[in-house]
Amino acid sequence: MKTITSFFCLLLIFSYAYSQDIKGTYAIKNVKTGMLLRIKDANGKNGTPLVAYGPQNWKCMTWDFQSMGDNTYQLKNLFTKKTFQPLGEAKETVALEEQPLLVDAVNQQYEFIKVKKDTYLIRLKATELYLTPADADGSTNSAIVLAKKKNSSEQQWIIYLQNPTI
C-alpha cells in the first residue's frame, strides 16, 4: 500500500511540474536574442507584423494570457487589445500579424511547452510550428515567424510579469 501511495504522490508531483496555469500580464523574451514580442510600432491596424524589439516596460510589449485549457493560451496585447496569428496559411517561415481576438480561432491559440522554470517553447495549436525570430541575431523590428522545432535557444521564450504604465 505504501508503494502505491508513493507512486501516486510522485505522479501528482510530476504532472504538476509539467502543467501550468499562467495568469496575468507578461513580457515574452527570446532566450537567444534577448528581444521581446511586440506589435510593430505599437500600431493597432489589422495586419501589423509581430516583431522583435528591445525590452521595455510598455503596454505594446505586454501580453494578457487568456487560458484556453491544456497549457493553451490566447495572447491579448495590452495596448491594442488584439492578438496575433499567421499571415495566411500556417506553414513554415510564415510571418505573424496582428488581428482582432476571436475566442474560437485555433490560429490564435498557442501552446506553452515548459522547458524549465518560466521558459517555454510556444507552438501554434494543432501544428508542429513554433514561434521563432526570423533574425537569429535579434535585429530590431525583425519578423517573428513560424518554424519547425529546432531544439535550440532560438525557439525558447522566457515570460516575466510586466505591469506597464505606458
Walk me through what this model shows.
The protein has 166 residues and is mainly beta. The protein has one domain: Trefoil (Acidic Fibroblast Growth Factor, subunit A), CATH 2.80.10.50. Helix content is 10%, strand content 39%. The chain has 1 helix and 12 strands. It has a 6-stranded antiparallel beta barrel with strand order 1-4-5-8-9-12. Residues 4-18 have low confidence and may be disordered.
What would the keywords be for this entry?
Trefoil (Acidic Fibroblast Growth Factor, subunit A), mainly beta, two-stranded antiparallel ribbon, 166 residues
Biggest sheet record:
6 strands, antiparallel, barrel
The domain count comes to 1
CATH topology: Trefoil (Acidic Fibroblast Growth Factor, subunit A)
Report the structural category.
Answer: mainly beta
Query: What's the SSE pattern?
Result: HEEEEEEEEEEEE
Helical segment count: 1
Shape annotation? globular
Mean pLDDT: 91
Question: How helical, in percent, are the residues?
Answer: under 10%
CATH class: Mainly Beta
Number of strands: 12
Helix and strand topology:
Layout: H1 2-17, E1 24-30, E2 36-39, E3 50-53, E4 63-69, E5 72-77, E6 83-86, E7 96-99, E8 110-116, E9 119-124, E10 129-133, E11 144-148, E12 156-161
Antiparallel strand pairs: 1-4, 1-12, 2-3, 4-5, 5-8, 6-7, 8-9, 9-12, 10-11
Q: What's the short version?
A:
By secondary structure, the chain is mainly beta. The protein contains one helix and twelve strands. The strands form four sheets. A six-stranded antiparallel barrel has the order 1-4-5-8-9-12. It has a two-stranded antiparallel sheet with strand order 2-3.
